[in-house]
């Protein structure tokens, strides 16, 4: 079976041979709803391509149980992806997070200092990439909008200042020379 594709078997949603939330997914509408909430798309095939690799990264080596799938789905759903692009970014964030934390946990084991350093180095790279991906998601959601914050303004005696949002081309002479 292909781990990257959902297969509906006996009214249960599975990824590969692993069951994913069987109690909540007894009908196609529930599957579509879960796909939309966790990946930003209601297309079950696209959702499978997004979720499969994410689940692989989220599950600890050789220990793929329903609880880990559910926690990964819950994590994905908390980001509320609105479209496929957001779904891809969110799945990357989740995969990087779980893998990075897994490597940090391995660094705590009874291993040589050299191996610990390797694990910590790899985890650091993954978690840094997770932060960069979160920033990319934020930029995507803001659609490139930039925000400028002026923290301090001096107005000399006899000077005028405008407080509030200022939009170019609005106001002018018709409004007494004030732009608001």
Structure in words:
- The chain is mainly alpha-helical and 180 residues long.
- The protein has one domain.
- Helix content is 52%, strand content 6%.
- It has helices at 28-39, 44-58, 66-78, 84-107, 113-142, and strands at 6-9, 12-15, 18-19.
- A 3-stranded antiparallel beta sheet has the order 1-2-3.
- The longest helix has 30 residues, at 113-142.
Brief overview:
With 180 residues, the chain is mainly α. Helices cover 52% and strands 6% of the residues.
Q: Biggest sheet, in brief?
A: 3 strands, antiparallel
Please, how many domains? 1
- Going by helix content, strand content and strand pairing, the class is mainly alpha
Run of helices and strands = EEEHHHHH
Could you tell me how far the N terminus lies from the C terminus, measured between alpha carbons in angstroms? 62 Å
Based on CA atoms alone, the radius of gyration comes out at 24 Å
Strands, count: 3
Mean pLDDT: 75
Strand order of the largest sheet: 1-2-3
Q: Number of helix segments? A: 5
